[in-house]
Design brief:
5 strands, binds 5-O-phosphono-beta-D-ribofuranose, alpha/beta
C-alpha cells in the first residue's frame, strides 16, 4: 500500500505548464494606457517578479479577454493587474473568467468625461461573487505592490515557484 509520499501528484503535471508563464499578468484596455501602467512594470522589475503585458480591450476584444482569463492560471499566472480608463470593464470581465485575484487600476484618460471617476465607478461596482480589488486612480505602482503582497502569501494555488518576498 502506498504511503502518502508515494502517491503520484496530479498537480505535478500542472507544474510543468506553470514553468512557462510569468507570475503577474498585466492587462491594459488600450495602447493609450501604456504610460499609465509603466510604474507597475517598473515596480515588478525592481522586485524581480516575472510579468507579462497584454493589450486587451473588454469592449473591442471580449473573446481575447475571455481566453486570457480562462488560461492565465494554467500558464502559471498568480495575480492579474488590469488597468483601464473610461468605462473600465476590463478588470471585471477578466475576473469573470478566472479564479485568480484581480487588481483593477482605474486610469485617467484624455477622452474621459469624468476625469477618471468614471473608471473608478466601473471598477468598484462589481456584483457580489465576482470580486475585483481597486487601487487608487492611476495607482499602477500600488497595484504591483499589492500583487507582490498577494504572491508573498503563497497560499491557494500549487506551484508558487520562486515566491517573492515583500522586500522591494
Ligand atoms: C479604455 O478606453 C482604455 O482602457 C483607455 O483608457 C480608454 C481610451 O482608449 P482608446 O480610445 O485610447 O483606445 O477602454
Amino acid at each position: 500500500m502506498s504511503t502518502p509520499e508515494e502517491v503520484p501528484s496530479v498537480l505535478g503535471v500542472l507544474d510543468e505548464f506553470e514553468e512557462a508563464g510569468p507570475l503577474v499578468g498585466i492587462l491594459i484596455g488600450s495602447d493609450s494606457d501604456r504610460d499609465a501602467i509603466e510604474p507597475a512594470i517598473e515596480e515588478l522589475n525592481d522586485r524581480g517578479i516575472s510579468h507579462e503585458l497584454r493589450v486587451l480591450s473588454a469592449h473591442r476584444d471580449p473573446r481575447g479577454v475571455a481566453e486570457y482569463g480562462s488560461t492565465a492560471a494554467l500558464r502559471g499566472v498568480r495575480v492579474i493587474i488590469a488597468g483601464a480608463g473610461m468605462s473600465a470593464a476590463l478588470p471585471g470581465v477578466v475576473a469573470a473568467y478566472t479564479e485568480l485575484p484581480v487588481i483593477g487600476v482605474p486610469l485617467t484618460s484624455s477622452k474621459s468625461a469624468l476625469g477618471g471617476l468614471d473608471s473608478i465607478l466601473a471598477i468598484v461596482q462589481m456584483p457580489p461573487g465576482v470580486p475585483v480589488a481597486c487601487v487608487s486612480l492611476d495607482g499602477a505602482r500600488n497595484a504591483a505592490i499589492l500583487a507582490a503582497k498577494i504572491l508573498a502569501q503563497g497560499g491557494g494555488y500549487p506551484g508558487t515557484r520562486g515566491r517573492p518576498t515583500l522586500e522591494a
